Amino acid sequence: MVERMKREWFGNVRADILSGIVVALALIPEAIAFSIIAGVDPMVGLYASFCIAVIIAFVGGRPGMISAATGAMALVLAPLVRDYGLQYMLAATVLTGVIQIIFGMCKIANLMKFIPRAVMIGFVNALAILIFMAQVPHFIGISGLTYVFVGITLLIVYVVPRFFKAIPAPLIAILALTAAAIFGGLDLRTVGDMGNISQTLPSFLLPDVPFNLDTLKIIFPFSVALAIVGLLESLLTSSIVDDMTDTPSEKNREARGQGIANVATGFFGGMAGCAMIGQSVINVKSGGRGRLSTFVAGMFLMFLIVVLGDLVVQIPMPVLVGIMIMVSIGTFDWSSFTYLRKAPRGDALVMLTTVIIVVMTHDLSKGVIAGVLLSAVFFVAKISKIKVQKSTEGTVPIYRVEGQLFFASTKSFVDTFDFAAEKEEIIIDFSNAHIWDDSAVGAIDKVVMKYQDNETRVTIKGLNPSSKKLVDRLGVHHDPKAKAAAH
Amino acid sequence: MSNILLAVDGSDNSYRAAEECIRYAACMEASRVQLIYVADFAKAKNEVLHAGGRDQLEAARRKRLAPVEALLQEKQIPYEVHILHGDPAPVIVEFANELKPDLVVVGSRGLNSLQEMVLGSVSHKVVKRVQAPVLVVK
Predict the structure, then answer these.
(1) Which ipTM value was assigned to this complex?
(2) A42 touches A32 (CB < 8 A)
(3) Nearest residue to A49 (alpha-carbon basis) of A257, A324, A300
(4) Do A68 and A279 contact (CB within 8 A), yes or no?
(5) Is CATH 3.40.980.10 correct for B2-137?
(6) Within an 8 Å CB–CB cutoff, is residue A165 touching chain B?
(7) DSSP strand pairing (B103-107 vs B79-86)
(8) How far is A18 from B99, CA to CA, in rounded Å?
């Protein structure tokens, strides 16, 4: 135990400290931009990032993963902030954490396997599209100079890393272009001009909301959505870090850790967050492996917040827009176009449905739920195809059943039999079938008894042991007095 | 005993590199091939997203090596598989410089100069930084 803690914290000290510093530098532009998406003061996102990163370093289940204020969570929070204000957002953040802690204790990570790939791909694509759409009002049709600045930002973030990697390119873009805008006296919208931003500093206290049922009614749906979205992105990110570092992680501990971090963040005046794919990849690429890297990222971010202070409000909006376009391009799964062509039709449709529902409702959790339900329906439809082949063995007709017999396939099973046609005796062979539930046994009863009504003797054979057990326990067709209507 | 390091990414040109590697292996005495595949950090997100889980992801990677492994088995050349994670070029270089093989064989994607500027040539970096003879197969 102590041995493991030592390894997770101090197994990679030098590289962890350096990568933590790189991540802190890379976090600043994103934390500010995500705050703008949520409609809160940039300090709210920066405090949240500090707070979540430091706490998750201790309680997370995936060493080396970076959690902070994220776009996914900001997008879910935006309508809450718009309609009810900052304090309700803080309350929702605390409640999100509580829900995530409960989820974690219920071992929710084990349920991840029920979320199909198609839904996860749809999720990241929808996230990318929403982040991009949130930028549109900040750069379309404002001024020629805005377009120029967005363009220069994109140029910097994509070209500079080819030659110079020590400082994250988005930060270089912010520093260079903010300086250019200030000293050139350029007429650009800045972070400080965003009218909807409350300038109150975060309170380090209980959220200032009435503690009653009405408040709960407002924040609960948001908190559930946040909990789902946060865990989905966190668990996906932890799988990515697992793969990159070729080490396992504790997914349920991570879920609980995300909850603890969000509860604390809400009380410290920050917005809800989760793990970040982009930043975690930066951390691992920069050599970060241990908990120390996450901790240093958070602490150094706090240091930078103190140093940068009021400069934040002078950052030109087009620079943040450019950085968010980069984040959106990086988040989008570009192989989805091949996926749409090559994946089974049902999967492709699930992916598209997830994306479309998210883009229409602006709610990531709704798209995920719809995607999961739709793929469940497709799965049932696919597996409920049952084949019955008729042949004759000597003079006796034999029906060979192939497939899964359960509530969704009973009707097509019963419909394949022609009760009037047969005379003496028939055989139904279940060697290639499985009987799953009460409805299935009922359907067999129905078939047998209908034949019996027509004076045809039915022999059932080939049931596998578990199917036979079920038929023996629930079936009534061997009882001559029974009626099919019993089911 | 001689050691040949063969870096493979599952592409056509890495298969051609494997064919060349086998020709050299036949000429060298008691040669052994160290087959190395680097799971690229840049593709990690995409691969995890499109794989069903850890096991499936591993299987998918092994499948990319399958044609080359079949080729080595057919010619009865002993080999070992190493699946590593990271940026392909530095990982291959580090592995090679530690192993000190008699020969390193890599495929070349044949990028034009613009692609090379943007994507970075793995074979170029390997030739430059590996302290062993390197065979680049076009």
Answers:
(1) 0.86
(2) yes
(3) A300
(4) yes
(5) no
(6) no
(7) unpaired
(8) 28
